[in-house]
Amino acid sequence: MEETREALEFDVLFVGGGPANLAGAIHLMNLAQQAGKEIEVCLIEKAESIGSHSLSGAIMDPVALKELMPDYLDKGCPIEVAECRDEFYYLTPSGKVKVPYTPGYMHNDGCHIVSLSKYCSWLGEQAEALGVMVFPGFAGTEILYDGDRVIGIRTGDKGIDKDGNKRPNFEPGVDLMAKVTVFGEGPKGSLLRELGKKLGIFEGKMPQVFETAVKEVIQIPDSSPFIASNTTVLHSFGYPLGLDTKGGGFLYKMKENRVALGFVVGLEYEDPLLEPYQAFLSFKKHPLIAEIIKGGKVLQQGAKTLPAGGFYSMPRLAVDGALIVGDSASMLNIQRLKGIHTATKSGLLAAETIMAAVDSDNYSADTLNAYEEKIAGSWIKKELYAARNFGQALSQKGFGKFITIGAQYLSGGRGFTDPMPIEEDSSSLKKAAAAEAPGASSDSQDLDGKLYLDKLTGLYLSGTTHEENQPCHLIIPDPNLCITDCYDTYRSPCTLFCPAQVYELEEEPDGSKRLKLNPSNCLHCKTCEIKDPYKNIIWTCPEGGGGPKYSIV
Ligand code: SF4
Which of 16, 227, 281, 513 is 20 to 30 A removed from 490 (C-alpha atoms)? Predict the structure, then answer.
């Protein structure tokens, strides 16, 4: 029998509580106020609180925030370090070479170091103060349509047990209806995947591709050389990935003797035995970093993916009744290694488009397509267009990539080939050699449980919890594929690329293998859905409120 559900109606519904949607909701309220109009605006977020699923490298160019809120500092915007002073290194296994020249786009003059979770939490407060109805703990699990027009979303049921039966605390999901729905779910949104299937928003575009970042906040002692140093930002490439695999490390100074340390791996990597978490630990043990964090203690750890496709991967941005913003729309500028500013600007332009739609009482694609035009006429397009082939160049092997990058630099982003092709992350793995066993687990590294952590200790420090008695949110359409084809060909790479030990290979008494899932460990990074070579993992939203509880990363 069809569940009876409550339906709530709004003018505008923002799905996801990241910088794009929060900025969009604030700007929309301001515009409505200036126009003397009353509009009902709702924002939902699957995390327990706004900001607790937000994790990033977090150097923020405040250019768009200044447009939204010129007095952001007076309003208490949480800045960790106001000024960025950069150093950039090429690392060998035990040495380092400081890169003497970096192109202008890599400079972070005028940028701030922030904790994205604190920043989003603060934006959430600003939105609420303006009258936005902010509902954390609610996951959007289904898009509602009238024909091909998006008319809202359904939130997930709560209180369903592992076998799909109602528990005593069962609460049906709610239908949130809106004239315009704004999708800002972050990278690889699960609703956007469904929107793509229904309305073809990714058709004719290059594939969506990603990088996975593992990140920690570490308390470092007074004696650390980084405390006295003027430098606030370190970036590196080279070790441990070498030059054939895209990725690199970062270290940012924070308040109160803390640093944010992270390592990013491009998910088009080829070696099925590569473990991004292991690469993070190796980077952390490099002398450049080890000396800075010596005597320190990890306070929080997390992982997430970043969209790396950029301009050529951007989907159609408007459909009847809906807009797509920020990382969901692949707007991160991979060349500048930042996306908060582009996400924020996209939220502002979405708000301005919606306000015009409110004025004309027309929410069709004809009106909302103005958003696509606004993006094309803004500095977002300018930045992303200049970087349109940069990620592809970085994915090239060896030093040759720097020649391509140089050519792009001199030709406004065109380089030798434009557009350079992008390969889907799920199709890049090479077969594992017959004799190779699954790669070394992070547990085999020299770990002390305080500064150098195994995955499960790190997971504990992410604060991740889920209701245990709920249906598994990781759908494996063909489980047999995992232990036959996937193990034989790639040695079950999900056991390595997942940063939270959700996937484990177990041996049955008869010697056969079985893939065991620990879904409650999930950090919601989506790496598994992106990288699985058989596209045999589908990430769906678990019960709202579950997942990491980031507060300082
Ligand atoms: Fe990330 Fe998938 Fe592992 Fe969850 S299960 S932490 S989404 S790789």
Answer: 281
Taking 50 as the pLDDT cut, the residues of the chain under it are 439-440
89: enclosing H helix or E strand: strand 86-91
Ligand 1 atom showing the smallest separation from residue 527 Cα? 8
Element (H, E) at 13: strand 7-15
pLDDT recorded at residue 553: 86
Q: 168, 159 in Cβ contact below 8 A?
A: yes
User: CA 12 to CA 354: how far, in whole Å?
Assistant: 8
> How many angstroms does the Cα of residue 429 sit away from the middle of ligand 1?
18
Half-sphere exposure for 358 (CA within 13 Å, toward CB)? 23
Residue with tokens 């308040």: 255
pLDDT of residue 484: 87
Q: What confidence score (pLDDT) does residue 438 get?
A: 52
Judge if the beta carbon of residue 522 lies within 6 A of ligand 1. Answer: yes
Q: Average model confidence (pLDDT) for the chain?
A: 95
Pairing of strands 59-60, 112-113: antiparallel
Q: How far apart are CA 418 and CA 31, in angstroms?
A: 39
Please tell me the distance from the alpha carbon of residue 77 to that of residue 94, in angstroms, as a whole number. 39
For residues 392 and 422, the answer to whether their CB atoms sit within 8 Å is yes
Separation in Å, CA 47 to CA 174, 343, 524, 548: 17, 19, 10, 8
Can you give the length of the chain in residues? 553
Q: Which amino acid is at 501?
A: Q
Interstrand relation of 7-15 and 175-183 (parallel, antiparallel or unpaired): parallel
DSSP helix/strand/coil, 302: strand
Centre of ligand 1 to C-alpha 523, Å, is: 6
How many other C-beta atoms lie within 10 A of the C-beta of residue 163?
Answer: 7
pLDDT at res. 103: 84
What's residue 437's pLDDT? 55
Question: Both tokens of residue 547?
Answer: 């997942």
CA atoms of 395 and 334, how far apart (whole Å): 12
Q: Given the CA of residue 494, which atom of ligand 1 is nearest to it?
A: 8
Could you tell me which of 471, 465, 531 has the C-alpha nearest to residue 188? Answer: 531
Q: What is the pLDDT of residue 35?
A: 97
Q: 56 in ligand 1 pocket by Cβ < 6 Å? A: no
